[in-house]
């Protein structure tokens, strides 16, 4: 009787244990299919491979696949010349929460190997995606350098040579600082040279250049690199004529694709190599608008005229605005 009872108890325990294992496995499988996070209380994320590498900038980003025990309050990428970058090193901050994000890496040194990975921070701590390495392009000869040490590419279009990037200098050619005005009311009342980054964000400025008012463009102290100048109307007109006229020149000038422009980026081929970037502009009241949708370039003139490109068209438009507007600047070689 005792042996029979013992065998019955052991069999019952075996059945219960087997059922428990099967139940736990089923729950685990269900959790994996419905948001189970193997990273525990920390966010789960991946890093986007690095692209668009120049001498001083690169493009990366990531995806926060799952949040952890609390909401993601900061995300971006971090980088360093050592193989294990952390948020204690250089980093971007690209919004919060789950989902995809794009990160513009700026302030790099030419011909240098860097390591980058995405990060996401919640109230528990910070987790990281996989690490990628990349090497910036070599600078020096053949590149244009402004007084701040920023490097620019150039391109020959017809009988002209243009800078490929929007100007991002913060000093006049003589070394004096251009006032960086961040406040809306202060910007609105200016009658002197000034510049700013879009939304006063240096990360955005690193990719799209600074925005300058008319007073900075026409200041005798000069914001263009040595050997270069801000294009006059006749030089813009020569460019458009060479590219087939204003009705089609915009498409040949706009950077193709959707890294910087948003859809539809109509007609964009960048066949000229001008690589126009949609830095948007700053209004008279100091607010910002049109980033990734439109590009506006000052004309060196006594009137506050500018040429514009937008995502909806392959043409170029001309207009005039207040001298206190903040627009992009492109330079042409002397």
Describe this protein with a few key phrases:
334 residues, alpha+beta, Immunoglobulin-like, 2 domains, four-stranded antiparallel β-sheet, three-stranded antiparallel β-sheet, 6 helices, 27% strand, disordered N terminus
Please tell me about this protein's structure:
The protein has 334 residues and is an alpha+beta fold. It folds into two domains: 44-135, Immunoglobulin-like (Sandwich); 144-333, no CATH class. Helix content is 20%, strand content 27%. It contains six helices and 20 strands. It has a four-stranded antiparallel β-sheet with strand order 4-3-6-7, with no helix packed on it. The chain has a three-stranded antiparallel β-sheet with strand order 1-2-5. It has a three-stranded antiparallel β-sheet with strand order 17-18-19, with no helix packed on it. Strand 18 (305-310) and strand 19 (317-320) form a beta hairpin. The longest helix has 32 residues, at 2-33. The protein starts with a helix and ends with a strand. The relative contact order is 0.11. Mean pLDDT is 86; it is low at 1-35.
| DSSP strand tally | 20
- Order of neighbouring strands in the sheet with most strands: 4-3-6-7
Provide the domain count.
2
The Cα radius of gyration reads 27 Å
Offer a concise description of the structure.
With 334 residues, the protein is an alpha+beta fold.
